[in-house]
Design goal:
The protein is 21% helix and 29% strand. The protein is built from 5 helices and 11 strands; from the N terminus they run βααααβββββαβββββ. The strands form 3 sheets. A 7-stranded antiparallel sheet has the order 5-6-11-7-8-9-10. Strands 1-2 form a two-stranded antiparallel ribbon. Strands 3-4 form a two-stranded antiparallel ribbon. By secondary structure, the protein is an alpha+beta fold. The two termini are 32 Å apart. The chain has 2 domains: 88 residues, Orthogonal Bundle (434 Repressor (Amino-terminal Domain)), CATH 1.10.260.40; 87 residues, Umud Fragment, subunit A (Ribbon), CATH 2.10.109.10.
């Protein structure tokens, strides 16, 4: 069964029903009915609302058979779990052009066996990588996982090692900077 994620995404973006309605060229009442399922969510509406929310149309739909799981509660700092539904959690990759890396040994916050998914698509730019853990490739072809920060020279970057090993590399030109967007970790009993 398909579930709408319009309300969830609208609230994440801090928008009101009226905000979305104005952007989609309709009324707040119509958006509310589409959010709650009181009105049929056609492909035409999905496209209009995705444009209004500035998100991919596929993000508006939760498909349990394709890896979307209903969030059945939020955990508070005291550990109490609310009983209210809060949209859906997607266990699909958020990268449009995913590059997966497997962590061999513990490395900073990452654990042996973790899988990292990096965004390696054509929109990946070095500026989006600043301040993030990234798979980087230097001009000579060397690849490494590092935190990327701005370099001291124009169009260069400093690469900070993720763990205790490794060397900081300063003022490097990057061929690729693919930010980590998903962490997959399996807990064993």
């Amino acid at each position: 069964m398909i579930h709408s994620r319009i309300r969830e995404i609208r609230k994440e973006k801090g928008l009101t029903l009226q905000d979305v309605a104005e952007r989609a060229g309709t009324t707040a009442q119509t958006i509310g009915r589409l959010e709650t399922g009181m009105r049929t969510l056609s492909i035409k509406w999905v496209n209009r609302i995705s444009k209004a929310l500035e998100t991919d149309a596929s993000e508006l739909l939760a498909l349990p058979q394709q890896g979307d799981i209903e969030i059945s509660g939020l955990v508070a700092k005291d550990g109490l779990v609310s009983k209210k539904a809060f949209g859906a959690a997607s266990v699909r990759f958020s990268a449009k052009s995913p590059i997966a890396l497997k962590i061999r040994t513990n490395l900073g916050e990452y654990r042996a066996g973790d899988t990292l998914v990096c965004e390696g698509g054509p929109t990946t730019g070095n500026k989006q990588a600043v301040g993030r853990d990234c798979l980087v490739e230097l001009k000579g072809g060397k690849r490494l996982l590092a935190k990327v920060v701005a370099g001291s020279k124009k169009d260069t970057f400093t690469l900070i090692p993720i763990g205790n090993a490794g060397t900081m590399l300063q003022d490097k030109k990057l061929k690729l900077a693919a930010p980590v967007v998903n962490l997959l970790r399996t807990f064993k009993a």
